[in-house]
TrEMBL record:
Source species: Candidatus Electrothrix marina
InterPro entries assigned: CBS_dom, CBS_dom_sf, Cl-channel_core, ClC, ClC-type_chloride_channel
Topology with respect to the bilayer: Multi-pass membrane protein
SMART domains assigned to the protein according to its UniProt record, in alphabetical order: CBS
The organism's place on the tree of life at top rank: Bacteria
Protein name per the record: CBS domain-containing protein
Parts of the chain that traverse the membrane: 18-42, 49-70
One GO CC annotation: chloride channel complex
Location of the protein in the cell: Membrane
Key words of the record: CBS domain, Chloride, Chloride channel, Ion channel, Ion transport, Membrane, Transmembrane, Transmembrane helix, Transport
Molecular function (Gene Ontology), one example: chloride channel activity
Domain CBS intervals: 104-161, 170-229
């Protein structure tokens, strides 16, 4: 479409590549139901602020259209296939009844903010299952998280890897949960933010990391709870049947 329009009105329209870029933004917004994420990513990727208005229009139209015909985003469709409805109904009640503390993994690797990038790479080599690591200060409190995405710009520079500290490159704006939050709150964060893991801290004020909550662990705990409740309900039906006979 962009090629045809540009060939027809070359002085009034953008190049075909611009149309493709806007289309990517519309597709991303529609599939994730997150138009702001699509807008920010496209602007960040291209560095061209002139595309903000067309990306905003296509992202909003794409999101509104998909919301009208399909309630699940690409992040929630797997839960629907698993029989988990995070929007309403019995599933929500079950998720709200389970605390995060019941589903967390307490086996969490940390790294000090004063460690260098080589130390971080060694930790990534050992812990293959981790997408990121909590970064802690000298008191052991979490001050941020660091992932391979944060080190990609200096990954092949030996000198920078030795002198750069983890605390200088880690992300300080971290989404966290506490053991007292429920799994419904956690699932909403997974859905909205498009992430797979969330660090769990003792309290929002005291950022001592007590574990890590993974999306797959939420599904596992939910399935176990559904099975347990199903067995309990069946046992109650049998008891009532026996008592009435």
């Amino acid at each position: 479409f962009g090629g045809i329009v540009h060939a027809w009105l070359p002085n009034l329209t953008a190049t075909p590549g611009a149309y493709a870029t806007i289309g990517i933004g519309a597709f991303l917004a529609a599939s994730t139901h997150a138009p702001m994420t699509a807008i920010f990513l496209l602007v960040e990727m291209t560095g061209n602020y002139m595309i903000i208005v067309p990306v905003m229009l296509t992202a909003i139209v794409g999101t509104v259209t998909t919301n009208k015909f399909y309630s699940d985003s690409i992040d929630t469709v797997d839960f629907t296939r698993e029989g988990i409805n995070i929007h309403e109904g019995r599933e929500v009640a079950i998720l709200r009844s389970i605390r995060v503390g019941k589903a967390i993994s307490e086996d969490v690797d940390f790294i000090s903010e004063t460690a260098n990038i080589n130390n971080l790479l060694d930790l990534f080599a050992i812990a293959n299952d981790s997408l990121y690591f909590p970064v802690v200060d000298h008191e052991g409190k979490m001050v941020g998280v660091v992932s391979m995405q944060d080190v990609k710009t200096i990954l092949h520079d030996e000198a920078k890897r030795c002198c750069h500290l983890v605390g200088a490159i880690c992300s300080r704006d971290v989404i966290t949960l506490t053991p007292d939050h429920n799994l419904f709150d956690a699932m909403q964060l997974f859905d909205v933010k498009g992430i797979e893991e969330i660090p769990v801290v003792e309290t929002m004020e005291e950022q001592w990391v007590v574990g890590k909550l993974k999306r797959r662990d939420v599904i596992s705990v939910y399935n176990h709870e559904v099975l347990k409740r199903g067995i309990s309900e069946k046992a109650e039906d049998i008891r009532l049947l026996c008592s009435s006979s």
